[in-house]
Write a structure and sequence with these properties.
Layout: H1 2-28, H2 35-49, H3 57-84, H4 89-106, H5 113-134, H6 137-174
Helix pairs in contact: 1-2, 1-6, 2-3, 2-6, 3-4, 3-6, 4-5, 4-6, 5-6
Length: 175
């Protein structure tokens, strides 16, 4: 009888952890934080607490692939949009570096500081790097705007991937 109670308690704890980390992870994504990885961690914790009865190695591999894909898309879209708006490859690197620096600098501002910092950093990084290459302010400004649009598009894609991860986690919990 004691074993059944322990399993039931662990399952309830695991479900609470799965839901909690899933919601926290989804909320972290628009802030430029590693929400997909928090969600994957929540599913792994769920699996561990339930002795991996419904979380298989294949499921873990799929979750890791989705989270990794989200990171690749996040970085690629900044490059892609900066170039799409007329910038060079250099502006893409500027967008990436500027976004990272801006996010770190923005952290002290509560909740949205990292988002604002990442957007401003992407714009400034792409614009400065493009200006150093093309010497045209108009081209640099368009590349900066493209970098911002890329950041926004990347956040939308990562939220969609987060929903996919949440559905997979829900599937694991209901199996």
């Amino acid at each position: 009888m004691g074993g059944r109670v322990r399993i039931k308690t662990m399952t309830i704890l695991a479900i609470a952890l799965l839901i909690g980390l899933g919601l926290v992870g989804l909320a972290m994504i628009p802030l430029g934080l590693p929400g997909l990885w928090v969600m994957v961690g929540g599913i792994l914790a769920y699996g561990w607490l339930t002795e991996f009865r419904t979380v298989s190695v294949v499921m873990i591999a799929i979750l890791l692939a989705i989270a990794f894909l989200g990171e690749i898309i996040d970085n690629w879209l900044g490059f892609r949009f900066a170039k799409r708006y007329g910038g060079s490859t250099r502006s893409g690197w500027g967008a990436l570096l500027g976004g990272l620096v801006g996010a770190v600098i923005g952290v002290p501002v509560a909740i949205i500081g990292s988002v604002i910092g990442a957007l401003l950093g992407s714009f400034i990084g792409a614009a400065v790097f493009e200006l150093s290459y093309s010497r045209h302010a108009g081209v640099a400004a368009r590349a900066g705007w493209g970098a911002v649009m890329g950041r926004i598009a990347a956040a939308a894609v990562k939220i969609a991937l987060g929903i996919v991860i949440a559905v997979i986690g829900l599937f694991a919990a209901l199996s």
